[in-house]
User: What shape does this take?
Amino acid sequence: MNRPQTPGRNRAVAVTGAGVVCSIAGSVAELGTALRQGRCGVTRYDDPDTPSIRVAATLRDFSWQAALEPFMCDYPDLGRRAGRVLNTNNPSTALSACAAIQAYVQAGLGDGSERLEDTGLIVAGSNLDQKYMADNWHRFRKTGRWIDPKYALSFHDSNQLGSLSEILALRGAGCTLGAASASGNAALFNAVQWIRSGFMQKCLVVGACSRFSALELDAFSLLGAATSGERHENPIQACRPFDMDHDGFVWGEASACLVLESPDSVRARNTKVLGEILGGSLLLDAHHLPDPSVEGEVRAMRSALESADLQPEQIGYVNAHGTSSPLGDRTECQALKAVFGEQSDGPWINSTKSLVGHCMSAAGVLEVLCSLIQMNDGFLHPNLNLERPIDRDLRFAGAESRAFEAEYALSNGFGFGGINSTLVIGRAGRP
Amino acid sequence: MKFSQQEIFEVVKQNSIKVLMDVDPSLITLDTSLTELGANSIDRVEVVMYSMEQLGIEVPRTEFRGVRDIRTLVDLLHSYCR
Assistant: This one.
C-alpha cells in the first residue's frame, strides 16, 4: 500500500468557507481582529430568574435582519428565502442561518449556479433552543393558549435542517448531530467521513447556538460546572482556563459554520482553500457522568494524530477544550503531557473560551475556525487570565497575542458523558 | 373588548403582511382568501393565532371550518368580540 507523501494529504478535506456570529464578532474578519486584540465578550448577566449565574458571553442587540443586510443586494434570491424562512423562526435557527450564509457565500455557492445535490448539511448540537422552549412553556402556563403557532415545528432541533436547506437550496444529505460539548468536533468529523467516502462532495457544518434558559444555567451552577462569576470583580476575569483561580465555565452564545469540500471538488470549482482537516477522532469513555478521563482524552488525541499520519512533534498548536473548570483543565493538562511529553518545547496551547466563553454546541466549529485564523495569519491569541498556571511545563499563550507559526494543529472537544473528540487541522498554503 | 369589523380587518391584514412578508398589501381585501395570497396551512394558523391574541379572544378551532375568505374570517372573529 502506498503511504501518502505528505502527512494526511490524500485524505485531507478542505475548508472553503467560514462564517461566525459570537459575542466579539459578527464576521470572520471581525473575529480575526478580535482574537488578535484578545477582546473578551464576557459581561455581567442580569437575569432575575438566574441569581446563581452573574456572567455570560451573550450576543447583545443581535438582529438577523441587520446581519443579513450586506448580502441582500448581491444575493437577492437568497435574501428573500432567508427573510421568508426566518420571519417567525426561533432565534437559534436565525443565528445558524447568519453564520451559514457567510460561509456559503465565501465558498462561492451564493450565485445559485452550483448543483447542490452533492452538498450536505450537519447541524451540530442538541437541545439547541431551550430558551425558546422555556419562553413558550411559560406563556402556555400563564395564558393557556398564546404559544408560538409554529412551536410544533420549531421546537425540534431538526427544524434547523429544513430552514437552512430551504435558504441555501441544499439537496444533499442532512442531519443534526449531538455530542454535548464535543458536538462541533463530532459534526465536522462526520462531514469529513461523508466527503472522504465520496458520499458528499461538500458539506456545511453549522455549530448551532445553545440558547439556555434560566433552568439550564441554574442546573449547571448546581453541579458546580458553571462559575457564578462572583469571585471576580470584572466579568472579563471570570473565565480563566488553566489558571489556579478557575472555578467553572462561562456560558457563551455563538453560531459558526464551516464549508468542507473534497479535493476533487476544490479543483473542479477552483475554490480558495482556507485550510484542511487532516484527521480526527470521536471516542466514548464508557462513562455517563461529566468526569473527564486522562486516558480517554489521550486516546482521542493519539487516534486523531494516527488518522492524519502525523507525529506529536509535528503539531505546532493545540486549541484546548479548556473550559475553565478545575477538573476539566487539570485532566486536559495531564492528557496533553502524556501525548506531547513533559518538556516545555511542545506545541503552543490556548483556549478560545477565555475570550468567548463556552459556546457549547457551536464551540467545536468556532474553535476550528479560530485555529485556522491564527495559523493562517501567523499569530497566537492570548489565553486570558492565565496568571498562575496550574501547569508550569506546558507552553500556554500569555496575556497578549504573539507571532507564531504552525503547520498543523489539534482542536480538542470533550463532552459530558465521556465523549472525546480531537480534530487535526492544517493551515492554508502548506508546502 | 369590542372591535369593529374594519378594525378586525386591519388586524388580520397586518398579521398577513407580517407572516407572508412579500405580499402586496393592496391585494389583501375582504374578498381574497389567505390561500390566494400565498399562505400555506401553517401561515394561516399563524395569521389567525396572532390576530386572536391581539384581539384578546379565543375562537374554538372547529369554528374555522366554515372560513372561505378574509370576509368570513373577519365575521367569525367579530362574532367573538362582542
In short: Chain A has two domains: 9-275, 278-427. The mean pLDDT of chain A is 95. The interface with chain B takes residues 80, 83-84, 87-88, 145-146, 149-150, 153 of chain A (CB under 8 Å). The two ends of chain A are 24 Å apart (CA to CA).
